[in-house]
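Tutorial, part two.
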Amino acid sequence: MLRIIGAGLGRTGTMTLKTALCRLGFGPCYHFTEVFAHPRHLHDWAAAANGTPEAWRRPLEGYVATTDWPGVAFWRELVEAYPDAKVILTTRDAARWYESVTSTVFAAMTGEFPETEEKYRRFEAAEQLTTFGRAGVIGRSFEGRIDDRDHVIACYERHNSEVRNAVASERLLDYKVSQGWEPLCGFLGVPVPGEPFPHLNEQASFASTVLEPPAP
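Running the prediction step on this input gives:
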């Protein structure tokens, strides 16, 4: 059962948060890279994005936490379904976030990484991946379009505001991964580890992670 719901959109440090949560003992944690390891999950995520009630439940079975898409596309449903779970809203400067999401997530969705074309053709759930990208990411997070900077940033800022307004303050951590261990550990009630805070999935290496399962 989920104990932690990551409510921040992708490119706000969601891979870093996933890694930090697992090091704190809150794993396994579902991040978009999980669908590359479990392609069959995309059938459920695509169905959920197209309106099948609670189709998101099956992929999340056995996971303690979730960050990033696909889960964040259903953050309201997750917050309601798991009332005892804590919620972490990762954010960053809106302009820098837009630059990052445009050159990574949106670029991947629009075929701007030619080195991934062959992997995509061989990926067994390619059709469902495309369906979820259109309906789950573009549809649910960006009101159906990603071709206008002001619109995308407005959707990002509105998403953050809606999370803050919908989740009780005692249940919510409004968090930037640049803040490191202290606020995260304080919120979760665990000791600060004696190791550096992880910082992963930098923009320059994003293309190499597309369609690749996460490291064990």
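DSSP finds ten helices and five strands in the chain. In part three we will examine how such features are distributed along the chain.
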